[in-house]
Design a protein that fits this description.
Blueprint lengths: L12 H9 L4 E5 L3 H9 L4 E4 L3 H4 L11 H14 L4 E5 L9 H15 L3 E5 L5 H9 L4 E6 L5 H4 L9 H17 L3 E5 L3 H10 L4 E4 L7 E4 L1 H4 L17 H17 L11
Parallel strand pairs: 1-2, 1-8, 2-3, 3-4, 4-5, 5-6, 6-7, 7-8
The structure holds 3-methyl-2-oxobutanoic acid.
Length: 272
């Protein structure tokens, strides 16, 4: 069963900083609706990310680009209604913050006001500096996201590991230090070499949360559907599946279909 710390009544940005300070790893997972978020929160996950991966796993798009701010707010408000303990962080979707800093601020404020979430996440480093400053200036906590940033997938052209070359690794380190100096409370590091994660996590005071970034990040995050094996086609090397729910759910539903066809459901006790 879960080993989550029962002393933590409500996880805040300060709580996850304290976890890093005392060397306790931070668990993070995505969720996109009320029922999922109830499960994730009850299991003791400290940070719930309403990720724009909803575009892939909830809506079936190939990339995270199509999801809109309104759709993110819908997912985030469903999650917030379920959560009693975790810190809820919401992705600012593609196109809602890169244009200019006023637009970024408007988008972040809509998320905070309309969903009740506790923080936002933004992808990128120096390129989005002004937007990060503006959002932080309104008192909205910001989590950064470096390495493989899926909103830039058409620039990268592939989902391969990022920052393997020295120049890109150096830029990532500079971006991470910049995000910390601006006041971000944490940074997601996605799909980068484990050695780079180790140096970034040692250099930064704020927590790093890794995905496909090795064991030395201060915390780990996965996508809900991937961890539970709901999406059985996605099998990257970094993913550990803790259940095979695609199989469990398909078999259960096939069983239901059989029972309906055989007229054994509902039985007498299941009828009024
Ligand atoms: O959208 C998302 O799910 C994410 C995580 C993979 C970090 O950004």
């Amino acid at each position: 069963m879960s080993v989550h710390n029962p002393d933590i009544k409500r996880v805040t940005t300060h709580t996850i900083q304290e976890l890093k300070n005392k060397g306790e790893k931070i668990s993070a997972l995505t969720a996109y609706d009320y029922s999922m978020a109830r499960v994730v929160d009850t299991a003791g996950v400290e940070v719930i990310l309403v990720g724009d991966s909803a575009s892939n796993v909830m809506a079936g798009h190939e990339t995270t680009l199509p999801i809109t701010l309104d759709q993110m707010i819908y997912h985030a408000s469903s999650v917030v209604r379920a959560v009693k303990r975790a810190l809820v962080v919401v992705d600012l979707p593609f196109g809602s913050y890169q244009g200019n800093s006023s637009e970024a601020l408007r988008s972040a404020i809509r998320i905070m006001k309309e969903s009740g979430a506790h923080a936002v996440k933004m992808e990128g480093g120096l390129e989005i500096k002004e937007s990060v400053i503006r959002v932080l200036s309104a008192g909205v906590p910001v989590m950064g996201h470096l390495g493989l940033t899926p909103q830039s997938i058409y620039k990268f052209g592939t989902y391969a590991v990022r920052a393997k070359e020295e120049a890109e690794a150096e830029k990532l380190m500079e971006d991470a230090l910049m995000l910390e100096s601006l006041g971000c409370f944490g940074v997601v590091l996605e799909k980068i070499p484990a050695t780079l994660t180790k140096s970034v996590s040692h250099k930064l005071r704020i927590p790093t949360i890794g995905i496909g970034a090795g064991p030395d990040a201060d915390g780990q995050i996965l996508v809900f559907h991937d961890l539970l094996g709901i999406n059985n086609e996605f099998k990257p090397r970094f993913l550990r599946r803790y259940a095979e729910l695609h199989k469990v759910m398909t078999e259960a539903i096939a069983h239901y279909v059989d029972d309906v066809k055989a007229n054994t459901f509902p039985n007498e006790k299941e009828a009024y």
